[in-house]
Structure formats: structure tokens, C-alpha cells
Write a structure and sequence with these properties.
alpha/beta; 277 residues; Rossmann fold; 9 helices
Length: 277
């Protein structure tokens, strides 16, 4: 794993950077002195974010299209120089009963959440390995260690991202390129709009996830969970009998947070955008 360093002066590219965790991360890293570029598929919001962040490096980015990803990284390097850190943040979370989920929606979730991360990781590696330096940070989720009814496909993608990132990290740990993942709990962005959350555990804030990412840039580690309490509770489930774990999930409301605990009207705008309606 790479040694501790600094944020200042690093070139950082962030996918899904126009809103939510990506936007908060851009804000934090800019404040710390990094040269930040963002990519996003939403051109209107991207333009607004660029003005708010006062950055010069940005591009339309569809993470499901390898050519789009390559153009994004090329554009970043043309303006800012070689990418030191890639933050694979773009992701969507449409919710609903598994049997009712349209095939096109299932495919879209997988293409963005999993293949987008795979594409970004590979393309960053191709640029970083010859230099024997660089850092790839994949935004996974505590859903990658959980089983939340109403979000089966989403949970599956985050389990995949967790496994992919950890395997790639071990593969390249002696290469000079660090690979890390940040695993947030339910975070107060549009992804969780209209959901009820979990009893006894507050949602994470985008700024907390951004702080964790900034911490990884300074001192690379395999993974960091946000919040600490949610991470500890989630990890503990692996050591409990299934019957006990499921009882706790029901008692805390975790098993209904994405089903009975959803306000459809509060969630409508996000669901339409995530599903590309």
C-alpha cells in the first residue's frame, strides 16, 4: 500500500461529481488544495456544479460507456496533468420489490454500479501502473455487507464492488498503485429520499463520506466504513446466527427501510432520474 502523503497538489478525478457524495468530495478536496475534475452524465447539473466549485476540468461522463470514460480521463489529463487519484463514485439506487423490477432497470443498476467501477478501475490502472504511482478509491457501501429487502439488485452490486475492489487491491498491492474503498451507511443524499432509515443509527452526511475519502488520499487503507457505529453494527452481523441477525434487522427497521418505510412521493423525482424515465 502507498505511504502517507498529502492532498495538496494532487490531480483528482471524481465520477458522479455533480451532486451528492461526489460533489461533497470535490468541495472537500478543493479546500485541501487538490486539483479536482468532475464527470457526470447530467449535463445541466454538471454545468451548475462547475460554476459553484469554480473548477476548469470537467466533462460529460457516462460510466457505462468505456469510450466516454476514456475521453473523460483524457480531458482531465489535458487540462490538469496525470491523474493521481480516481474516485469511482457514480451509482444509482432504484428501490422496489424484486419481482416487480423491470429488466432494464436491473441492467442499468449493474452497468452503472458495477461495470462503471470496473471500467474506471481498469482505465486508471493502465495510466497509473507505468508510473508506479496513483490511487483508485471506489465508493462501495455498507449495503455490500448487508441484505436490505427492497434493494436486492443494489445490494448485489455493492457486494460485487466490495469483492472486486479488495481483489484488485491484493493483486496490485506491490505495484505502487493503491486501491481503496469507502463504505458509507445510508447517506443523506437523494439516494435515500423518502426512506425511513434505521432505528438507533443516524444516517451519514455527505461531508462525512467526503472526509473519509480525503483521509484515504492522505493515508491509503484497504477500506473505511462511515459511520463508525453503522460499520461496527454491520460487521457484527457476520458473527451472529442468521436467525439473530434477521431479528435485529427487523427490530431496527432495517428490513423495512426500503419497503414499508418508503414515501413514494418524496422519492418520485429521484426514482425517475435513476431509472432514466
Amino acid at each position: 500500500m502507498a505511504q502517507a502523503g498529502t492532498v495538496r497538489g494532487k490531480v483528482v478525478a471524481i465520477t458522479g461529481g455533480a451532486r451528492g457524495i461526489g460533489y461533497a468530495t470535490a468541495q472537500r478536496l478543493i479546500a485541501d488544495g487538490a486539483h479536482v475534475a468532475i464527470g457526470d452524465v447530467d449535463d445541466e447539473r454538471l454545468k451548475q456544479a462547475v460554476g459553484e466549485l469554480r473548477i476548469t476540468a470537467y466533462a460529460h461522463l457516462d460510466v457505462t460507456d468505456p469510450n466516454s470514460f476514456e475521453r473523460f480521463l483524457d480531458d482531465v489529463e489535458d487540462v490538469l496533468g496525470p491523474v493521481d487519484v480516481l474516485v469511482n463514485n457514480a451509482g444509482i439506487m432504484p428501490l422496489g420489490a424484486t419481482a416487480d423490477e423491470a429488466d432494464a432497470v436491473s441492467r442499468r443498476i449493474v452497468e452503472i454500479n458495477v461495470l462503471g467501477v470496473i471500467t474506471g478501475t481498469k482505465q486508471a490502472l493502465l495510466r497509473m501502473l507505468p508510473r508506479r504511482s496513483g490511487h483508485i478509491i471506489n465508493v462501495s457501501s455498507l449495503a455490500g455487507e448487508s441484505y436490505v429487502p427492497g434493494g436486492a439488485t443494489y445490494c448485489a452490486t455493492k457486494h460485487a464492488v466490495k469483492a472486486y475492489t479488495e481483489t484488485a487491491r491484493r493483486e496490485y498491492r506491490d505495484s505502487g498503485v493503491a486501491i481503496s474503498q469507502v463504505m458509507p451507511f445510508f447517506t443523506n443524499t437523494e439516494l435515500v429520499a423518502g426512506t425511513s432509515g434505521t432505528k438507533g443509527m443516524r444516517n451519514a452526511e455527505p461531508g462525512e463520506v467526503a472526509d473519509a475519502i480525503a483521509g484515504l488520499v492522505v493515508r491509503p487503507r484497504a477500506r473505511v466504513r462511515v459511520t463508525k457505529l453503522a460499520g461496527a453494527v454491520t460487521m457484527s452481523q457476520a458473527f451472529l446466527p442468521s436467525r439473530v441477525s434477521e431479528f435485529l434487522g427487523r427490530a431496527l427497521g432495517a428490513e423495512t427501510a426500503f419497503t414499508a418505510g418508503v414515501d413514494p412521493l418524496a422519492r418520485q423525482a429521484y426514482e425517475e432520474r435513476a431509472r432514466a424515465v
